[in-house]
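ESCALATION

Customer reports they have been waiting on this structure for their group meeting. Please prioritize. Original submission:
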Amino acid sequence: MLNYLDKNDWETGLNYLFKSAEGGYELAYGDIGTILFLYKEDISSAEEWFEKAEDADCFLAPSAYYYGLLLGNEKGDTVKSLKYFRKSAEEGFELAYGELGFLLYLEKIDIDEAEEWFEKADAADCLEAPHAYEYGNLLIKERGDIEKGNFYLKKAENDGY
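Update from on-call: job pushed to the front of the queue and completed.
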């Protein structure tokens, strides 16, 4: 499947996944949702496949992450988005670390936990610019650590934020 994405031939990969799903391979559901969301930009169909994956109890961490993005960015549902980012992050999907920290901080849900997830994202070298920016703000506003906070604000700036 990844071979098709590497070749930018997501349509062929998607067709194989549909055949797998039709044959009862439930693990394909989340991948179908991911491709429909990322490549086809078909939000409603992607959401249906993500929900099928969850109903079948085979919602893997990468798909949970992308479902969290869909819910947060397309639906504005931060509560559900947080649920899926947490699932993904707790299962070790590193891209979810920064997103989880970002939501926990911006929604003022748990500043300490947000800081932990930002640190994990940084340690995994996947602290993206918006997350670095908010981590910098957290460090300055919540911890009073101006030097370290400015380091992350500068990192965000250097990364184009």
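Sent to customer with the following note: The chain has a mean pLDDT of 94.
Escalation resolved.
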